[in-house]
Amino acid sequence: MPMIKARYTKPRDKRDPKHDIAAMLSRVTAEILHKDPAVTAVLVESAEPDDWIVAGSGVADLKLGTFYVEVSITEHTNLKDETTAWVRRVYDEMNALIGPVHEASYVLVHAVDGDAYGYGGLTQNLRWARKHG
């Protein structure tokens, strides 16, 4: 099931939203991509605003937050409209949690071949075959 990685700049003068980000990503992934939260893993890492550079300027100097979020899912398990909605919602919710964010904040969906992706030592296609075989 999904592996989500999020990297974001810590908001200045605010509490660190790490757990809120993880919860939001799991919730939005279940709601929009229909993925089981019981096997959704989320890795959330913060970065110092001085260490995140966009177009040659640090986002700290711009007084903006930024982030990069990616999810790996099995290809052909979601429609284009679902992945498009997921990208939009993640952007909007990250903006609400750490914003205002720089427009150069990124959301990526990796739709991976089911023979090249899995968890617990089993590929997604093998899991599907065992379930439907």
From TrEMBL:
<keyword id="KW-0614">Plasmid</keyword>
<protein>
    <submittedName>
        <fullName>4-oxalocrotonate tautomerase family protein</fullName>
    </submittedName>
</protein>
<dbReference type="InterPro" id="IPR014347">
    <property type="entry name" value="Tautomerase/MIF_sf"/>
</dbReference>
